[in-house]
Design a protein that fits this description.
The structure is a single chain. By secondary structure, the chain is of the alpha/beta class. It is built from six helices and seven strands, in the order βαβββαβααβαβα.
Length: about 170
């Protein structure tokens, strides 16, 4: 497999909760040999909500950033709280500045695509530092993603071995 040594890997093809679980498992394994920073989403919104925002968990220190906002009963709007996501993005940006081998960011989503908020400070810091990024992108945000990442990314299937091989290649872990 050759992903042309793209330093950004975008995982696609599975529901977000499955991708987040895969990221969590891989990050736990990789921490034994690499400095991993970033955030992984844990869902936690109420059943039946327009989206299932809960919290972002820091891979660097376990800090939790709430991204849930209660919009009231019957709301059909997405309940992701922009302030919590932006705080998480800023924390990851600081972690990147302190040094790391890989950044895992739960997803490039609505806040990043439409408002350049959310985790965007972390995406930018990692890209500017030439640190590999592992993330996911929903098809509905593909246009904004391509505008941000241009041709610096490769698409990866949500397969443990595929992602592991990509990481070995871009992180120079042999």
């Amino acid at each position: 497999m050759n992903h042309d040594m793209k330093r950004i890997g975008v995982v696609r093809g599975r529901p977000s909760a499955e991708i987040q679980r895969l990221f969590r498992e891989l990050a736990t394994r990789w921490r034994q040999t690499a400095r991993i920073v970033g955030v992984i989403e844990e869902s936690g919104g109420p059943d039946g909500a327009a989206c299932n925002a809960g919290q972002l968990i820091s891979l660097a220190d376990g800090a939790s950033f709430s991204i849930f906002q209660d919009l009231g009963r019957g709301s059909t709007a997405c309940n992701v709280h922009p302030d919590g996501a932006l705080s998480a993005g800023e924390a990851v940006r600081r972690n990147i500045e302190a040094g790391c081998d890989l950044v895992v960011l739960s997803k490039f989503g609505k806040l990043e695509a439409e408002q350049r908020g959310g985790l965007m400070p972390a995406f930018i810091a990692a890209a500017e530092s030439n640190v590999p990024i592992l993330t996911s992108v929903s098809a509905k945000f593909d246009v904004a993603w391509r505008q941000f990442a241009e041709d610096a990314y490769c698409s990866l299937s949500a397969d443990y071995d595929v992602i592991e091989e990509w990481c070995r290649t871009v992180c120079d872990r042999g």
